[in-house]
Protein 1
Amino acid sequence: MLKNISPLLTPELLFALASMGHGDDIAVVDANFPAARVAREAGAALIRLPGQGSGQVLQAVLSVLPLDTFDAHCAWSMQVVGDASAVPPPVLEFRGLLGGYGLASLERFAFYAQAGRARALVQTGDLRKYANVLLRKGVLASD
């Protein structure tokens, strides 16, 4: 165990996060997301945290991951199929955790495509629909 590090940040997840560079994406996805297929096709790391919710994992990841401030968006959720303006409970939770960063949304297959370019996918045990979020890593600057 490490001090001041969430126990949800397993060695595999910490390695994936530390290996990411500016502009790389990571996906935190629910139990229903086709994470094994998407990760395999992308050549991305697949990290499973089956006993955890997506919001809990997002909060842990945000405790160590700087988000991108160069582009208009650094976080995306999946739109509800058939009702792009709907905001399901997991997305409300993500918005609260992201604070001022904002959360854009992507159509289902566009979300799959962007997740397919991620460096890592973290599959949670969240059974709520639309408990999926993509994050883009930013930079830590000394200036």
Protein 2
Amino acid sequence: MAGAVDCTMKPEDLQKLVAMPMPYGKHKGRVIADLPGNYLAWFAREGFPQGELGRLLQLMHEIDHNGLSELLRPLR
């Protein structure tokens, strides 16, 4: 299945969301936790990239979609 990623969450993933910048595209350089919801939803519709980046984008989409972004505040 194209766009399928391993969505197993690792303990350090939340910290990575607030530290790892988007490596390409319209929002290049912006940390994943600060990506707009419509951009994350686009990936959800079109397919997440492979590897760690895709896994983290999928996790951030779930956090954003479910209104849980406040979970990341203490990590900033």
